[in-house]
Amino acid sequence: MNPKKPLQLAYGMAVVLLLVGVLSYTAFSAKAPDEPVRLMFQCSTGKVLFDHKTHTAESGYGIACTDCHHHPENAEDRTSCRSCHDVPKDGSAPAACLNCHDAGDFEVESIVKKTDAIHQQCIGCHKEKGSGPEECKLCHVNYNF
Amino acid sequence: MLNQKKFIVSHAPFWHNGSGITERSYHTMLAALPALLMGFYQYGMPAVGVISLSVSAAMLWELAFNKAAKLPVTVGDGNAAVVGLVLAMLLPATAPWWIVIMGTFLAVVVGKNIFGGIGSNPFNPVAVAVAMMMLSWGGCFDFNQSLVNYELNFPSMVYPLTAVKNFGVSAADAFTVSDLIWGKQIGGIGAGFGLGLIVGGIYLMLRGFIRWEISLSFIAGIILTALLFNTSDPSRYGSPMLHLFSGYTLVAVFFLAPEDSSSPVNFIPMLLYGLTAGVMTVLIRNIGAYADGVIFAILVANLLNPLLDKIRPKTLGHIGKA
Fold this sequence. Notes:
A: mainly alpha, 2 domains, 42% helix, B: 322 residues
């Protein structure tokens, strides 16, 4: 084989694959679905993998959106838990609250903190329905790859 | 007896049979194709993007290093492309572009070229890069997290090794051995389809591009160690088949461990090297901190490589000192 041929082939391959790679990352990148399939909550006590679809699908547990995304009840776009329950460290009101309320209409201290809100929601429902994990380590997992 | 012909060499000119590093690189990439195609089918265009960008970036890093160090351009030998390809096989389809660029830099420049290039690296370049990335950006290798938006026709969308590590063997009951072999498990783009990797591995072994002694002793090390653990506590430790067909095992067996300069050359050392990697893999998975210990097991085996190669065959006719 001509010694220059492998090099030319390699240059050609590098350029073509670079183009395909850049195009895939830009034009054909994966779009996040409108409704999440699963969610990974990052917690200090270990990550929690929450199967959103199994909880909401009719073939799963069929839980209504408003059972968890309870406020405001008639909103078309479901606000995430953290948009209200994740209170900024400086003690100011979360931006999502101020979309509808004035800052003086409510006390920031009365907002249930994110961890408590999710714990109440998950554990409360699991206890009420008598199914699903209730122990800490059955949701929170610590592992490295 | 004196007339016995032992070794006959004809005089020049010689004829090159065409075999070389370039040929070997392209055949290695060909062997990876079945596993890769399954990855493309399962994860779609994002997987194509990761693989393409990784191969291309690895070649460009090699070219950049060659130019910066004023060395001959070695991109043509295809080794950088293989490094990029194997690295991308271990990444999730959703790997961000900067992880791919960083990973290929770590593999090609830090793992290979600063040691002197092909044939001089003490560790497998891909294993070095993945270990550094796992320790720095572990979230990218958390397949449960990376692939949250994928919904595929698998028995479970949870990574089998982390399920076993956290919740015991029953957590991976949904997976049959057949599911794992046919790639019905989440994981790296080219790491999940066991059958494809085995076909590629057999091709490489038959063509002599990798040494069967390393790959088969690696598998033996995994099966034996996993069997011992599994027999001692079947509810806590996964079966040998689970260890063999999940995680990075088969990529490591056929594409990482047999890499030339970081693996031994003699028969007994090759067997010991493979066995060490297999035993370490299961030890790290079962009693270590990591869900998939393959990468670190390879690095430990690489570390032992120079020591293992001290076990040499006796020189013919050599009379030792006392």
